[in-house]
Amino acid sequence: MRAGAATPVLAGPEPRLRLALRYLSHYRGRYAIGFAAILGASLVVMLPPIVLRDAIDALNLGVEGGPAPTMGTLIWYGLVIVGLAMIEGFLRFAARLLVSGTSRDLEYELRNDLAAHQMTLDRTFYLRSQTGDLMARCTNDLQTVRDLLGPTLIDLARILTMLIAGFFFLLTVNTRLALISYAYLPIVAIVIGAFGKQVEERYGRVQEQFGALSARVQENISGMRTIKAYAQEENETAAFGVANREMMRRSMSWAYWTAGLFPLMTLATGASVILVLWFGGADVLRGDITLGQFVQFNSYLLILSNPLLALGWNITVLQQGAASLKRISEVLSARPLIADPDVPVVLEQVKGEIVLRGVTFGYGADVVLREVDLTIPAGTTIALVGVTGAGKTSLVELLVRMYDPTDGEILLDGIDIRRLSLSQLRDSIGFVPQETFLFSDMLSDNIAFGRPGSSDEAVRYALATSQLENDIPQFTHGLATVIGERGVTLSGGQKQRAALARAVIKDPPVLILDDALSHVDTHTEEEILRRLSEFMRSRTTIIVAHRTTTLASADVVVVLDDGRIVETGTHAELLAREGMYSRFFLRQQLVEELVEDLPA
User: Fold this and answer.
1) What is the three-class DSSP state of 347?
2) Alpha carbons 335 and 115: distance in angstroms, whole number
3) Residue 306 lies in a domain
4) Do residue 592 and residue 480 come from a single domain?
C-alpha cells in the first residue's frame, strides 16, 4: 500500500478501558500503594493552612491587646509547616516512584505483547497495513499510553483527591464561601468535555498522518536506488512536502484546541478568587470569620489553583492517550485468518507426500486456482510451469498456509495441513519465495536463520550447494559481513543464492523453490541444480521455473493455465504430446539461445 493511503480498518478494537484495566491489574498492588500515598499527600497538604490560621490569629490577638505569641511559638509554627511539607514531599515522591516507575514496566510488557502478537498475524493483515503506521503505533502511540498510565494517571489522581479534600476543608472554614468557590466547577466540566472530545479526535488524525508520513519516509529510504535510477528525487520530495504540510495542518488544529484549555482554566480560577475576596472580605469585616480563617481559606484556594491549572494539561494528555490506546487496541484485537487449530495433529515424522484435492482459491472475487487435483509422492521433484498469472505462486503459497483454499483440501502425509500446527508445517518446508528478504545482519546469521546455531559443516554444505561459496572472498569480512538493509549490498543473484542456502541448511523434508534462480546465470544455475540433485533425492521438491535446464531435471512437470492443471507428465512425455508444454519449452529454449548469443 502506497504511503498516504487511508489507514486500514482492522478487526473490531477491544474497548480501550478493558485493555487498560487488563494491564493495570497486573500491577494493582503497586498502583494501590501509589494512590494511597497520593491520598495521604493530598490530606497532608491541607494541614499547613490550619497552622497558618492559628499563627495569624495569635498575632492578630496580640495586635489587638491580647497576649502576644512568643518567638518560640512562632518558630514552632514554622517547624510544623516545614515538617508537613517534608511529609507531603516524601509521599508524592513515593507515589510517583511507584506509579510512574510501574508504567515503564507496563510499557515493557505491552511492547513485548505487541511484538509477539504481530508475529501471529498473517500476510493479509500486513497487505492491508502500512509499515510506517504500524511503526508509529509501536513507538509514538506506545509512549503516549505509557504517559497516560503513569504520570498522567497519578496527576489526575492528585487533582481529584485534592479537589475533594480541599472542598471538605473549605467547608470547615465557611460553608457559603466553599459553595461559592466551587460554583464554577460544573461549567469547567462542560468545557473540558467539549474540548477533550475535540482534542482526542484531532490527536487521532495527527497520529494517522504521522503513520502515513513514516510510511512514505520508509518507502523512500528503502526504494532510494529506484528513485535515483528514474530521477524522481524532485517528485518524491514534493510528495513528501504535501504529506508534511498536511501533518503540520493537523498538528496546528490539535494545538489550537489544546492551548485553549489553559486560559479557560486560568480564567475560572481567577473568577473564583475574585468572588471569595468579595464575599469573604465582607465576612471578615462583619466578624463572621477571623482574619486567620480568611487567610486559611485563601491558602486552600492557592493550593487548589495548581491542580486546577494542571487539569487542563492532563485532560489533553488523557485524550491523546485515549486516542493512542485505541490505535494500539486495534492491532492487539486483530485476529489472523491463518491460525493453529484448537487441537493440532502432530506428525511424528514428515515424509513429504502432498495431495491437493479440488483446491480452489482466489483473492476476493479474482479466482486464481480452480479445482486443482494433484498428488506429489514423497521424494518426488516436480516442476510447475505456466504463463504469468497461471497460479503457480499462489499454489505453493497455499502449501505453507500463507493463505487457505476457499474450497478443497491440501494433505501432508494424509493429514489436512489445517489440522497441523503452523510451526510444524512451516518447519517441515524450506520455502524460497520469488522476493528474497535478507535482514540487515551478518551473512552467516542470514543463512542460518532457519536453523540458528548450525554447525560450520552445515554452513559450508549450504554455501557449496547454493554456489555462494565462490562469492565469499568478495565480502570484506567474509561470512561476518553485515549485508545492509534487505541485503542491499548484494546482487540479485547473490540474494537468491543466500536464500537458497538458508533453505538448504534448514534440511527440510519438503523444498519449494518459487522461481528461486531467476537472477542466476545459466552456468551457475546448472551447477546449483547438479549439487541440489543429491539434496533433493531424499525429499519432496516443488520448483516453479522457466528455464529449460530446470524443467528437464524434474521427475514430473505440471502445466498450469488459467488456474487449472492442463498437462502432467515427464519432460519427455510432454514434449512428445506437442501441447502447451512443448510450445512453452521450445519458446523458452529459443529465448535462452538468443540471450547466449548476445555480445557480453
Assistant:
1) coil
2) 14
3) yes
4) no
* Sign of the CA dihedral running 568, 569, 571, 576: negative
> At 311, phi and psi to the nearest 5?
-60, -40
Counted domains in the chain? 3
Domain boundary at 507, 534, 550, which?
Answer: 507
> Residue 366: beta bridge partners?
363
Give mean pLDDT, residues 208-212. Answer: 81
Exposure of 483 in the CB half-sphere (CA atoms within 13 A): 23
Q: CA geometry: angle at 371 spanning 367 and 377, to 5°? A: 125
Highest average pLDDT, of 16-30, 426-440, 500-514, comes from: 500-514
| Domain final position from 446, 481, 507 | 507
Mean pLDDT of 24-41: 90
Which among 167, 28, 191 is positioned nearest to 99, based on CA atoms?
Answer: 28
Choose among 528, 540, 587, 213: nearest CA to 380: 540
Quote the pLDDT of residue 369. 92
In Å, how far are 428, 441, 464, 511 from 448, measured between CA atoms?
16, 11, 14, 16
Q: How many CB atoms lie within 10 A of CB 418?
A: 18
* Shared domain check, 270 and 355: no
Would you list the DSSP string of 60-123? HHHHTTSPPPPHHHHHHHHHHHHHHHHHHHHHHHHHHHHHHHHHHHHHHHHHHHHHHHHHH--H
| Spacing of C-alpha 405 from chain mean position | 29
Work out the angle between the directed axes of helices 153-173 and 71-120 (0-180°, nearest 10): 150
Look up the domain containing 403 and give its range.
348-428+510-600
Look at residue 62 in the predicted model and tell me its pLDDT: 63
**Do residues 134 and 185 share a domain?**
yes
**Global pTM?**
0.73
Element (H, E) at 380: none
* Helices of type H across 230-290: 233-286
Assign 3-class secondary structure to 171-188.
HHHCHHHHHHHCCCHHHH
Average pLDDT over the chain, rounded to an integer: 82
The C-alpha atoms of residue 191 and residue 541 are separated, in whole angstroms, by 68
3-class secondary-structure state, position 414: coil
In-domain check, residue 342: no
Contact 164/185 with Cβ under 8 angstroms?
A: no
Query: Residues of the chain with pLDDT > 90: what percent?
Result: 16
Tens digit of each residue's pLDDT (9 = 90 or more) over 538-569? 889 999 877 777 777 788 999 999 889 999 99
Please write the tens of the pLDDT for every residue from 278-300: 777 777 777 777 777 878 887 88
Residue 9 resides in a domain: no
